[in-house]
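Study this one:
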Amino acid sequence: MNSILRDLSAQSGHLIPCALTPSKRLINIFLKSSLLLFSLIICEKSVAQTNLTMSGTTANWNTPANWTSSNFPDDISENAILALNARPTVTASITIGSLTGNGDNTVTVNSPATLTLGASGNSKNLIMNGNNPSIIVRSGATLIIWGNATFANKVSWTIEANATVIIKGNLTMSQGTSMSVNGSLKVEGNLVSGNNSDMTVNGSGSVLISHDVSVSSGNLNGTGIFQFGGNCTGPTSSYCNSSHYNSSLPVQILYFNAVAAFGTEVKLNWATASELNFDYFNIQRSHDGRKFETIGEVKGHGTTKERNDYNYTDTFPIEGTSYYRLQSIDFDNYTETFHVVAVDSRASKSIALSPVPVVNSDLSFKLNFVPKTEIAVSILTTTGVERFSGLIKANETQASMKLSLETGVYIVKMSSMDFSKVSRIVVQ
């Protein structure tokens, strides 16, 4: 008995005096408790993906009745499987796990929706291998795949003008896949194309492959921009024909990422492989991934074939998830907008006041969150006498108020149902 207790003591980390002779009931309780704790640890570490299937329906993605268990995929832990002739349309921004099409499927992403598969550090894939499936990304819509995209069996993929597709991994096309690009396609891995798979990049379209292009058969058509950062193999293919390779873009981006730091900053880092007649970058940020504002500017290096590394720190990041992108401007005012990255800053809700000190009676308010209700603003003297009151409207992230105050120091109180802050300003 004492040897059993010594073993239990060593495994549990708790000392059980060997001089005691507990009852069998006490030992059973101890063993059951240890087993329960072990089971909870295992369950916590192995949360399985849920597969949800749509079959034989042309309908809105967000309609629960169209999916198994009356639950449509809207979480990274949920994989979407399309069977038979399921043809869903995405009309609202969602993040899911992997997406697999096994039938005569059509997936349509409508503006202004963003369909995201996976997340940073959690790769998920898009696989279309059914019978003549289609993918359509409408103008103003976005598709982001944090993994690989694999197409087979005559997949037809259309990226309309002003639509954006970002593939963080590799793009593989085979068995007669055809792709028509009028918008923007960014593949951060490799492009592998074979079995008579063709890509048409039309005049308004652009395709950027960050690494290698490998083609066994198939053709590149159109007059749009097609760029790759590595090698191109398949000398008989027009993919590797220099006449289709456009090197006139102001910059070639190697990577772009955003990292939250200390809960009060977001650090952006990126690098260019080459720059041509390049002036500067606009740093742009968004609350929802659709409406962007410029928050900063970083000077470029003109014309160079050498790698250049850049960084920018957002010292007033958005609360919760925010979206960043780069916009390049060359000396001829040619503008190109690059892919979007998302980051959770873990910042607290806050409002920044400017200018400091206040001049010309104008006070601006900049919010790092989207208020659900109006925010009351009250400006008081240091003795507590109110001299001004106003409101910041719901859903507004910026506001400006005209003050009529004498020179001096004032207290600014800002409050709503879920926010409160007190600041001090100086009026000149």
